[in-house]
């Protein structure tokens, strides 16, 4: 179908289990323009060499604090913004260099659910029109009746009453709007959904409803999810695997059970220990990081985390640690793994 | 004039005669008149805070927790708002005070930290000036003394290079630093009560951990009571000694933190605690675990709610819940809940 050169570095796993989405060394540097002629005076290294893959039916969560580049990864994968370099493969096919006309049919397969259910739905369209748009756009329905039938099915899928069709977004609560957002992502029959902080704006009780809905839909439809979030407790409930980002880089990737039981990277450790537990009797050693995240305009040399890392030593300030395997399916980028330095005891969980 | 008011409040503070709680809120009702009806944002809430205590008010969006805290400082615009009930601070009903007398209390005996450190700091004044303003106003310091004290305050909240930072503007600081400045400003006059409305909600977890740590440290050093308003049950569990749970403008449960998390008695509290994702869930159960949901949505506060406000979503609802509003009653020593069906512990004589 496409004439794009298939110069894919075939993944070592082979064709036997080809991931649905594969991202290789993705970079996005935003130019900073200033001065009289708006010359480029620097770059924001928002995403600086990120690789991961997502299997069919799998959820990978991208976690990290504000400004770590997790949302930029999501948007670059969708090509809502153009990557600076790197490869994005959907079902083994490179999409990062496709021209818009060839990318368009593929957009059907990758959809997004945004954080704010208030600003991401057109207030002037009825729910029916919001959901019908992707269906007619991709020519998925043969008649007006067919469209309506499909919209009704979508509302069933996200557990909204069918009469919601005739109403406007403002008539719904935050949770219900997020259901509409999910229905819209499902409308063109997507198999990869990128959830960018999709439940962060919701109240606890509603958040639980949406998280459960996403899990159910994944089981029902075999969806792959890229779940971008800063909320580790929610991530632990919804995900299969986790990738932790810090200042534009992935510092650790692991299966959920491995990451939450025994985080290996000092940043992951600190991040987990900082989450307040809803249990007043919980006793644990908290690692309190000093200072703030450095600016992605001038990331620190060596390991980007060394300015806040409680274990940093000389090598960390000069040499950047590579992301490498330290266990089955477990990658981490830290010099401590080589040095054989004694690790501090992991976060003690609530009794 | 301000000074006489100030003296009055200060003598009230040291008045030996006052033995009750630091703050006693009785039957607080804050209603807003709007074009399409009266919104009963807070509808009959009572609680108290003892000196040096941390009380958390928790609930979801729209439950009235922030309106409650703003009502205490009378930051609600009247009209359209209308506050009734009694707010006794060291025995004085704040609702009886004039605006001028109120101004002598705000930022002095009672101060407040808001959620958004960017919008609650003045962008065109240096942080030193903003911290100094309360000192000049309430403690009659001159420019120089105020700046020196502002530097001390920045030191207290662990802002490095306080001497330089005191001359900086809010946009030059990170989110966590701005929140530290807010705290420095709130604590400058040694308030007896600090109201913290979602103080860490806008911050990242590692920064949140820093700020919570700081608040705990300062509380033990300065001895202020804290009214913590938040939706985050994790933060509550870490900070609070006692907890008030609000739903649809009403208090549904009150207990010590330990008791509330161990034995929640109101079905709403139980639902809320069940819905909170917990770190470590994957260590107990293999695979993905389901969160418990509270079905439905909160009732419309524009219509008077007949019966229990939670009746429409409650798994244990019966006929009486839909017709009679349950009173807040003692279910166990120090544990109160507004539910017809919550079990009452037999209190041993």
Tag the structure with descriptive keywords.
heterodimer, A: 351 residues, alpha/beta, Rossmann fold, eight-stranded mixed beta sheet, four-stranded antiparallel beta sheet, 11 helices, 29% helix, globular, disordered N terminus, disordered C terminus, B: 349 residues, 13 helices, 35% helix
Detailed description of the structure:
The complex is a heterodimer of chains A (351) and B (349). Chain A has 351 residues and is an alpha/beta fold. Chain A has a domain at 17-109 and 191-339: P-loop containing nucleotide triphosphate hydrolases (Rossmann fold, 3-Layer(aba) Sandwich). In chain A, 29% of the residues lie in helices and 22% in strands. Chain A is built from eleven helices and twelve strands. An eight-stranded mixed beta sheet of chain A has the order 6-7-8-3-9-10-12-11, sandwiched between helices. Chain A starts with 20 loop residues before the first strand and ends in a 12-residue tail after the last helix. Residues 1-15 and 344-351 of chain A have low confidence and may be disordered. Chain B has 349 residues and is an alpha/beta fold. Chain B has helices at 2-14, 65-72, 99-105, 127-139, 143-156, 162-165, 175-187, 205-222, 233-239, 257-262, 267-275, 281-284, 319-323, and strands at residues 23-34, 37-49, 54-58, 81-89, 92-93, 110-113, 193-197, 225-230, 242-247, 250-256, 329-332, 335-337. In chain B, helix 1 (2-14) crosses helix 3, helix 4 crosses helix 5 (143-156) and helix 4 runs parallel beside helix 7 (175-187). Chains A and B meet through helix 5, helix 6, helix 7, helix 8 and helix 9 of A and helix 7, helix 8, helix 9, helix 10 and helix 11 of B.
